[in-house]
Write a structure and sequence with these properties.
Length: 199
């Protein structure tokens, strides 16, 4: 009897059912779904981690240069897709950006203001493309846009803050070496995913 119960459970789990991805809901559930989608849909997490490590390693000034273009470009990308249907597949560009962020972090070189702003704008734009909601009512669209913007920006700010505060708390060389090592891992993972994406 016990074996029959397990078999029934496995069959029920394998039955087709409606997909729950890209939930469109005109309430906070829709915003929450968009938030989760933005920070968990590959390759967004690896790009956000790479950018966070790079900006955190370069301190508050790099964040001040990169964050406003990040927000503006992400919002602009979603508006362009929803109004003009301007779409570029964001998978490869995000992986290339993650690879660049990882290599720049691993190198330990200082990030000047202009490249920081450009990197923030590029990451923001392609994250906006990835996070743009499907056609829906105005209320549903606004919830989705708000959730995506909040999710990506909270992830970036939190990631940069963790790295920057850790560097201030432990100014010893081992922490910087650890962050640079994480950057090299981001670069390696991005290169592997990029190879799979263009294969």
């Amino acid at each position: 009897m016990r074996r029959l119960g397990w078999t029934a459970a496995l069959v029920a789990a394998a039955l087709p059912h409606p997909a729950s991805a890209h939930v469109a809901s005109p309430d906070l559930a829709g915003a929450y779904a968009a938030l989760l989608h933005t920070v968990t849909e590959p390759p967004a997490p690896i790009a956000l981690i790479g950018l966070s490590l790079l900006l955190g390693l370069n301190g508050a000034e790099a964040m001040r240069q990169a964050w406003p273009p990040f927000i503006a470009a992400m919002a602009a990308a979603m508006v362009l897709i929803m109004t003009l249907r301007v779409y570029v597949d964001p998978q490869v560009p995000l992986l290339v950006l993650a690879l660049g962020c990882g290599l720049a972090t691993a190198s330990g070189l200082r990030l000047p203001a202009a490249p920081a702003a450009a990197m923030g704008a590029a990451c923001g734009y392609f994250l906006g493309v990835l996070s743009a909601p499907a056609p829906a009512s105005l209320t549903t669209t606004l919830y989705s846009v708000a959730g995506a913007l909040i999710g990506a920006n909270l992830a970036l700010v939190f990631g940069v803050a963790v790295v920057d505060m850790a560097r201030q708390q432990w100014p010893q060389p081992w922490l910087t070496i650890g962050v640079r090592t994480l950057g090299s891992w981001v670069a390696a993972i991005s290169a592997l995913l990029l190879a799979l994406a263009v294969r």
